[in-house]
Automatic annotation (TrEMBL):
Biological source species: Bacteroides intestinalis DSM 17393
InterPro entries found in the cross-reference section: SusD-like_N (IPR033985), SusD_RagB_dom (IPR012944), TPR-like_helical_dom_sf (IPR011990)
The name this protein goes by in its record: SusD family protein
TM regions (residue ranges): none
Residue stretches making up the RagB/SusD domain: 373-523
Location(s) in or outside the cell: Cell outer membrane
Length: 527
């Protein structure tokens, strides 16, 4: 049993106890209304178990599912995964497993089943029930973006460690209605709110659920409805962009930020392991696995310190001890990789976005206090205001209520906040495709390392647009793929989301444990 965590909900301290072991060894049938679900403490315990499931699901998958394959990273060290980087997924890939995701769904299902019939008054139980519906919607939203159609399971499993046997796949379109219905129920049970800017960032409150609704509607290309939902969130909940002066602090202390909407809580002492951010991008104990490509390095150094976000994406302090500021130009990346500045293995561009800065952190010099992989306690944003604003910009371009200048204004608002004075001008973006690429590129910089870019490319049908040049680049050497991103399957008419190799394969365990799934692997993968 892990240490208890406390969050605020509806003015009451919500005990965010992590009860992974308890929930795993207790079949749902033994947690009946007579033995469990009889006190608010029971609801707190179960609620904490749901969030624990979310943590386990996204510990590394926030990055593997949402960003790594998106063409902005190059390999470093020796622990990188080329299959993830270069479109070589297979059914044995660890992140192709949905075990943790469905475990979280089972826990949400149990809460949805038992809370309405518990003796606890609705004024106390309703927020917990609302969070259960929201958690289930969030998990299914991840599922459809990663695998496409997945089994729709609405009841608890008697043993949450078992596979979801005898369930076939439900279509992405059918799951749309299911997810949106769960979101509406979550909003109903959570209740009305007006000022969410000071609410806890670590549970699914009304602001977080509204952000999820915007994201889901954008994925399903319901642009006009997404615009209405975005305007509601932006107008009525008192969130605001963090000013440039405190921009970096919101990633270290999201609780005090009016921009953050929903963050994943992680504490390595309580969660028995470090969050994956350190091992992938910012390790204090090992060589990092990935850092920006040469193309993105050039883009970043071209902005120098004019754009606050540059120093959040790459540690210019550490690089400056390796490459002097005067040498930090376009060509310096290639020179460093060739060993012109010393051992090329020492050249790693760490991402300090979620790392404390210290005056003596870098061997007595100014720099960032990177922690060991197992000690990483990053509170990864799942939704924040800049994300929603830029989704709104997409809706202004793609919906029926066209406002191209409004979309440009949002991009410039995000840039201005970051201190970057390069103003986008509508005349430079004559087509809708040009505008969407502008927004995607802005989201790439603004939301770097937050697990968004891959979904941005898929949502806008631009995987090959961005990934072909990346995979065809001669810098990849023997990993170069002359034909670019090979999807390997035809897109069906009016298909929403991914298909072929844009989707992940279903893990081989699915076919071994669930007879109903045999023969339903995503093409062109093998079972």
């Amino acid at each position: 049993m892990k240490r208890l965590k406390y969050l605020l909900i509806a003015g009451v301290s919500l005990l965010f106890a992590s009860c992974e072991n308890f929930l795993d060894r207790q079949p749902e049938s033994s947690l009946s209304g007579e033995t469990f679900w009889t006190s608010e403490q029971d609801l707190k315990t179960w609620n904490a178990g749901m969030y624990d499931g979310l943590q386990s699901t996204l510990r590394t998958n926030w990055f593997y599912w949402g960003e790594l394959r998106s063409g902005v990273y190059a390999e470093r060290g020796t622990a990188y995964d080329r299959n993830l980087l270069y479109n070589g997924l297979n059914s044995q890939s660890g992140s192709s497993s949905w075990s943790d995701l469905y475990k979280t769904i089972y826990r949400a299902n149990a809460a949805i089943k038992h809370i309405p019939t518990s003796p606890i008054g609705s004024s106390v139980s309703a927020p917990y029930l609302g969070q259960a519906y929201a958690m289930r919607a969030l998990m299914y939203f991840y599922a459809i973006r990663v695998w496409g159609g997945v089994p729709k399971i609405t009841e608890p499993m008697e043993d949450v460690s078992s596979q979801e046997r005898y369930y076939g796949r439900t279509s992405v379109e059918e799951l749309k209605a299911f997810i949106l219905e769960d979101i509406e129920k979550a909003l109903e049970y959570i209740g009305a709110s007006t000022d969410m800017s000071s609410a806890s960032k670590y549970y699914l409150n009304r602001g977080a659920i509204m952000a999820l609704r915007v994201d889901v509607l954008m994925w399903y290309k319901e642009y006009d409805k997404a615009l209405v939902a975005a305007n509601d969130l932006l107008t009525n909940y008192k969130y605001s962009l963090e000013p440039a002066s405190t921009y970096s602090s919101m990633f270290l202390n999201p609780s005090s930020s009016k921009e953050m909407i929903f963050n994943l809580f992680w504490n390595y002492e309580e969660d028995s392991n470090g969050f994956g951010y350190a091992q992938e991008l910012a390790s204090g104990s090992n060589t990092i696995r990935y850092h920006p490509t040469k193309a993105y390095y050039k883009e970043l150094v071209s902005r120098k310190r004019e754009d606050t976000r540059v120093t959040m994406i790459m540690d210019t302090f550490a690089i400056s001890y390796f490459i002097t500021p005067d040498e930090m130009i376009d060509e310096s990346y290639e020179k460093a990789m060739n060993g012109d500045y010393g051992n090329a293995a020492n050249f790693q561009i760490k991402c300090p976005k979620f790392t404390e800065y210290g005056a003596t952190a870098n061997d007595g010099r100014p720099g960032y206090s990177y922690v060991a992989n197992g000690s990483c306690s990053t509170h990864m944003p799942i939704y924040r205001l800049a994300d929603i604003l830029l989704l709104k910009a997409e809706a202004l371009v793609l919906g029926t209520h066209k406002d191209y200048q409004g979309a440009i204004n949002i991009v410039n608002q995000i840039r201005e906040r970051a201190g970057w004075e390069s103003t986008a001008v509508l005349e430079d973006y004559p087509t809708e495709k040009d505008l969407i690429k502008l927004i995607i590129d802005e989201r790439t910089i603004e939301l770097w390392a937050e697990g968004k870019r891959w979904f941005d490319l898929v949502r806008n049908d631009m995987v090959k647009e961005y990934l072909d040049p990346y995979l065809q680049n001669e810098d990849l050497g023997d990993q170069r793929i002359p034909e670019g991103f090979v999807i390997g399957a035809e897109k069906e008419a009016n298909q929403i989301g991914g298909y072929g190799r844009i989707l992940w394969p279903l893990n081989q365990d699915v076919f071994r444990k669930n007879p109903s799934m045999r023969g339903q692997q995503n093409k062109p993968y093998e079972e």
